[in-house]
Amino acid sequence: MRDLLRADWPRALRSRCYRWILLFALFLGAGCVLICTVETNDRRLLLAEASNNLVMFLSMFMAVLSGALSVIAIAAEFSSGVIRNKCIIGHRRSHILFAWVLIYSMTTVLSFLAFFSAFFLALLCSGAALSQASAGAIAGNLLLILLFMLKFQMFSLLAVCIYPDVKTAVICYLLSNASLIPIMLASVDGENDEAVGLLSRFFFVGFLNDFQLDATTAQPWLTALCVLSLGAGYLLLALAYFQRKELK
Amino acid sequence: MDYALTTHALCKQYGSFQALDGLTMRVPKGAIYGFVGKNGVGKTTLIRLVCGLQRPSAGEFFISGVRHTDSAIAEARKKLGAVVESPSMFPDLSAEENLRYQYRLLGLPDEDGIPELLQLVGLEQLGKKQAKDFSLGMRQRLGLAIALCGKRDFLILDEPINGLDPQGILDFRELIQHLNRERGITFLISSHILDELARLATHYGFIDRGRTVRELSARELEDACRKSIRVRVTDTAALPPVLDGMGLSYQITDRTGAEIYGRPEISALVFALAERNCRLLSCTEQEESLESFFFSLVGGGDRA
Fold first, then answer.
1. Is A85 a residue whose pLDDT tops 80?
2. Is A200 or B215 the better-scoring residue by pLDDT?
């Protein structure tokens, strides 16, 4: 697997799409704060204002975008036939898949870091009262957001293992994500419904309704567990599909 | 004899379609093995199975003696290179970058061999030109270079000369012969262009409906397709003593005709027959081509 990482990691980093996404993450992170500075004059309230569900929405957008990048990059291996070269020289399919998991998880982590670095740097530059914030709550929430973003990566892997054609995979991936919107709407209407509450912990869109970056989230471990189990489920399905796939 | 590839009763089924139906073949090490068959008889399916892109429904195959289900098959595949259908490469990378990627996939520590490989396939002067801008011939050559990365001793080429111009075919043939002769690389080449295959192959495997119809060496094929003189005479009874006396092999085909293998001296034959009151009526040279031999094996008028 080391050889797979050695070959694919530089290629992922050198990808023009990926560089654009990193730039976009920086722009979005800073832009999120900029919008809030326009809306509020009180710098003490800036952190609270910027930490509402706008940052969640934009980070979700970043997650979808990072997932789409993985879909495009991996589907390109199928369409160009490079995947054949990997199999012919004896790389196991499970190793190929896990190399993708590692590489595109790392690119997601880098996008996440770019987005939130720009976000916090913009807050600092805007004079927001960061010292009043609970570092523990923010760190916990950031970790949850990162888990959600990684879960999108696992879903993108599943999409590309089922639909190796670039266009089909991207469209299916985006449509599947759009189909989560009803869960978000249901979680708005049924905030007190336990089942909807539990369901919303699995999906970013449900989670962001009642979210504040600088406030402790209720039962964060349950949310983390839900997200991790769903991500693992996607990964296992992707592995099952990929192992059985008849390559041309 | 050592074999680079052996298959035994290999089967592959796609739904109700039986693509391979108990195919058994042996590719000797150091051979250029021409794999001949009509469209859809299972040539590419076999190549996909051997390359690990698909799994057989039944049967087994061995690469350099390692069974396809053994854990050591991954190591055996490291000596195998292949171009299946179309050459596999990243279109947005240059030839050198594609080779560098393949070197890394193979875990090769240094990339010093890349310039030599580019020179070998005649792509050394392309610079940063991306693979998507290559001609078909250049893509084929890059595909071969990718398949050659590392120390490969067995290359599988699926229709490698499809779409190449005459000069490209000539270059490709010379390259394969050079690699076979100088580096001892075994080749398994599937091709529809039988005349071209006849100039390259040292061994042949003829396949029809998912089964091997016949395997033979180039020498055996030459014997099977050997030149003959077809003669018509007034009395075939006079032929055996005359031809035996001349040390020629022959076959009496009917009451007035015979096939003589080899090159008899015609005037001596005429005199010898005349001494036995037999006249030579006609004499024509016959040669069976690989193409006609193929059709005699698999039947039908469809093209290979």
1. yes
2. B215
Question: In whole numbers, what is the pLDDT of chain A averaged over residues?
Answer: 82
| C-alpha R_g of chain A | 19
Chain B nearest-CA residue for A246: B54
ipTM metric: 0.82
Amino acid at A231: G
Question: Which residue among B78, B88, B90 places its CB closest to the CB of A84?
Answer: B88
Residues from A contacting B (CB-CB < 8 Å) are 2-4, 6-7, 11, 76, 80-92, 246-248
Mean pLDDT for B196-205 is: 87
Q: Domains of chain B (ranges plus CATH)?
A: 3-223 (3.40.50.300), 226-287 (3.30.70.100)
- Distance between CA B293 and CA B72 in Å, rounded? 39
**pLDDT tens profile B265-276:** 889 989 999 999
- Put simply, whether B146 touches A (Cβ < 8 Å) is yes
- In angstroms, rounded to a whole number, what is the distance separating the alpha carbons of residues A134 and A234? 33
Closest residue in B to A88 (Cα) is B51
Rounded-to-integer distance, Cα A236 and Cα A243, Å: 10
CA–CA distance, A66 with B157 (Å, rounded to integer): 37
Domain ranges of chain A: 2-241
The Cα–Cα gap between B164 and A21 comes to 41
Nearest to A86 among B76, B86, B105 (CB): B105
Among candidates B52, B85, B86 on the partner chain, residue whose Cβ is nearest the Cβ of A88 = B52
* Lowest mean per-residue pLDDT among A126-130, A162-166, A228-232, B206-210: A126-130
A138-158 pLDDT, tens digit per residue, is 888 888 889 888 988 898 888
Q: Measured between CB atoms, does B82 come within 8 Å of chain A? A: yes
CB A99 within 8 A of CB A13: no
State the residue for tokens 């800073």. A30
Average pLDDT estimate for A75-100:
90
